[in-house]
Design a protein that fits this description.
The protein has 233 residues and is an all-beta fold. The chain is elongated and about 80 Å long.
């Protein structure tokens, strides 16, 4: 990248050092003598990063008339930050019913071929794992990059997701070939029966997306969104 190339010779920076560029190859002539060099620069990935990720490699070679030759390669594994989930506002509680609001964002230019899956985590009650979240499919809203409602252009349905023996699948969205452009926002709410939970419980909502057989879960998956719901006292 422009302006990122620097050379240090024996610990001191060489002002104005610039490489010769031939296509995707950079070269720099080193001075004769017993010297040490540190060359730093930045590169930019211009290709799309698929859901399964992309490994990018960069190779450096040294050679010359003095017989000193060497080569080394470094690699970086990249993951595209396509999917993000977050809590949307505060929960509301009425009697033994808590309503939790959620928002997922799919940062893709064109959603053709993508399928979004949404499911609940379990709560351990009475020696078994149970799913306490439920959803009304009519409460799901899909917005395109301009925040235009495109819900009627996608296919929303239920699906099965078994976790610890409990049915946790809430819904899936098939974007088909509707040519919906992102980032796409999915807004929805789940309800929880708090009568079995005492004063509070941690309720977690999860999701993932699939395209061409490749699956990705949210980039913030290690920081589960947690709602605290209060039951009757």
């Amino acid at each position: 990248m422009d302006g990122s190339f620097t050379v240090k010779e024996n610990g001191g920076t060489i002002k104005g050092a610039a490489p010769a560029i031939n296509g995707a190859t950079l070269s720099y002539d080193l001075a004769d003598g017993y010297n040490s060099y540190t060359i730093t620069y930045k590169t930019k990935v211009t290709a799309d990063i698929p859901l399964e990720g992309l490994t990018v490699s960069n190779t450096g070679n040294i050679g010359g008339d003095n017989g000193l030759h060497g080569s080394d390669t470094g690699s970086v594994d990249l993951k595209d930050e396509v999917l993000k989930k977050e809590a949307d506002g505060d929960p509301t509680v009425a009697g033994n019913k808590a309503t939790l609001n959620w928002k997922s964002t799919i940062n893709v230019d064109n959603l053709n071929g993508y399928v979004y899956y949404d499911y609940s985590d379990t709560v351990y009650l009475n020696s078994q794992h149970v799913n306490l979240q439920s959803i009304d499919l009519n409460d799901i809203q899909v917005l395109d990059k301009d925040q235009v409602d495109v819900t009627n252009q996608v296919t929303i349905s239920t699906y099965s997701e078994i976790t610890s023996g409990a049915e946790c699948g809430l819904f899936k969205i098939d974007f088909g070939s509707a040519d919906i452009h992102g980032p796409v926002t999915i807004k929805y709410k789940t309800t929880v029966d708090t009568s079995r939970l005492g004063e509070y419980a941690n309720i977690t909502n999860k999701c993932y997306i699939v395209k061409d057989g490749h699956r990705q879960i949210p980039v913030l998956r290690k920081r589960s969104i947690t709602w605290k719901t209060c039951g009757e006292r």
